[in-house]
Design goal:
Elements: E1 16-21, E2 26-31, E3 41-48, E4 55-57, E5 63-65, E6 79-83, E7 87-90, E8 98-107, E9 110-111, E10 115-121, H1 148-229
Antiparallel strand pairs: 1-2, 2-7, 3-6, 3-8, 4-5, 8-9, 8-10
């Protein structure tokens, strides 16, 4: 019976893998299998979920190979990363799509069978360091997400506009009140001007009336005196 030296074998597949999706990256942590007594490292490849055999333009930034079987497509992966430990962080996978992850253990004699994680969906927008591979490109999508500084600026502008509107309203109300006051004031002055001369002229006319009556009386008295004499 021929025995094969384990030093000339590829490593065993990874035993188990877990996912953790936080606000900055998708973390993949795996438990390695047997290394066959040789140094090994680990490789992770990302491919899109599949519907048909053709490559469909899923968006302006990502082309996803598609197929009904849900197996890995024949095209190259959209993302590939290597690490000395079976732990990976995936930055800037586009949300809204299902991905298939394949993790390999690799040594100088080859790589193990893949540990596959299918139907991995990204909920939040992740990082920006996706590499170009085989014509499939993921670009930076962070520019379409408003950051906290932009939100704060919008709030400040809204507050300033609100204060400005309130001040303008107060100014308009004060202006209307002043205009109404100026409109009513000349009428009162005109009424005072009309009553005062009438009162003064009456005082001036009164002595003339008295003088005329006394003159008439004196004339009547002199008339009676002349008659008596005659």
């Amino acid at each position: 019976m021929i025995e094969f030296d384990s030093r000339f074998k590829a490593p065993k597949p990874l035993i188990d893998c877990t996912l953790h999706n936080d606000s900055s990256a998708l973390e993949v942590n795996c438990i390695p299998g047997s290394d066959s007594g040789l140094p090994q490292h680990f490789l992770l490849e990302v491919r899109g979920s599949l519907v048909g055999s053709e490559v469909i333009q899923a968006s302006q930034t990502l082309q996803v190979p598609q197929s009904d079987q849900g197996e890995l497509g024949e095209g190259p992966p959209i993302y590939r990363i290597e690490n000395s430990l079976p732990s990976f962080q995936l930055d800037y996978l586009e949300p809204g799509y299902d991905y298939t992850l394949a993790i390999y253990a690799v040594n100088k004699h080859g790589r193990s069978n893949p540990k596959r994680l299918r139907n991995v969906r990204i909920v939040e927008q992740l990082g920006n360091n996706m590499e170009r591979s085989g014509g499939f490109v993921i670009k930076n999508l962070q520019s379409i997400i408003p950051n906290s500084a932009t939100r704060n600026m919008i709030i400040y502008v809204a507050v300033i506009c609100g204060v400005a509107v309130i001040l303008i309203g107060i100014g308009v109300m004060i202006g209307v009140a002043v205009c109404r006051k100026r409109t009513h004031t000349p009428r009162r002055e005109n009424m005072d001007d009309l009553t005062t001369p009438t009162y003064v002229s009456a005082q001036r006319i009164e002595p003339r009336v008295r003088y005329d009556s006394e003159r008439r009386r004196s004339q009547r008295t002199s008339f009676y005196t002349d008659e008596s004499r005659n």
